User: Fold this.
Amino acid sequence: MKTKRLVIESKIDEELIKEAAQLLKKGEVVAFPTETVYGLGADATNELAIQKIFTAKGRPSDNPLIVHIATKTQLFALVKDYPPYVEKLIDTFSPGPITYVLKSNGQVAPNVTANLSTVGVRIPNNKVAYRLLKECNIPIAAPSANTSGKPSPTTADHVLDDLDGKIAAVLDGGNAEVGVESTVVDCTKETPLILRLGKITKDDIEKVVGKANIISGLKADKPKSPGLKYKHYAPDVPLILLSEDKNMQQVIEQEKAKGHRVGVLVSKRTANRIQADKIITLGIDDQEIAANLYHSLRSLDKRDIDVVICESLPINGIGSAVMDRIKRAATSIL
Assistant:
């Protein structure tokens, strides 16, 4: 079965939204755009529908899913016993690229939460996603719409590259704007704990609630959030991340001496100073680099190069999330 592509033009086509919503309500899996990346959606209350997500992605069953809803009221209908600061965060950042991990009241299917007592919920800031969620009027669980372990999709083409024939449809709403997944915040304790970095930073959150902690290390045995246990975002070729004190051209020459065809991932300011077999320019500033990151990782083809070298990038703002993703994708760090 070929995946149906439902293309949203400049004006949102309500008939396509209704078609996608009907598929979701029938227990099918549909990819759709959010402001961060494309999500792979299924009815969060339907255990069999959720299993289709895990099957299509090849995703481990102990990796919980994030639930997407359209309104604050729908969010609170899925959770219980939340601290007072949660409403402050929601009123400040949602709709937007942030996920709240809260105590589940049992409304979503157990395979959404990986049988944990918590559930991650967010309100996406994307017109197509909002219309779809309003039309469905059910919570939609939606991890990134890619094969597990590969770079997340920021276009419908990326979704089809991985999942064509494995899902019912993709709602094509153009490029995702942010380019990296949402910030995930554990809100089950007195102080919020950031589990995954995204566009909304620790400083942003602390301006609202006074104090926030951030999880240390890259892995967790029983993760409350996606991205804490398994390798993610890996391109098809080995990726070497350089620390700031390393000379990139010197490392390139060392790899060439091994007979390797070398690609590089660099900011625009570095691109003109480097010679390599393939140079991919991520962008000028942190926002542009974030938006281009996954497309760039997906463009690394072992038919063209044998290894890719990535420079360390600035960690201001969303740059922290970009470096987090690159570290998770890296085969080695020099």
Q: What stands out?
A: Residues 219 and 228 are 5 Å apart (CA to CA).
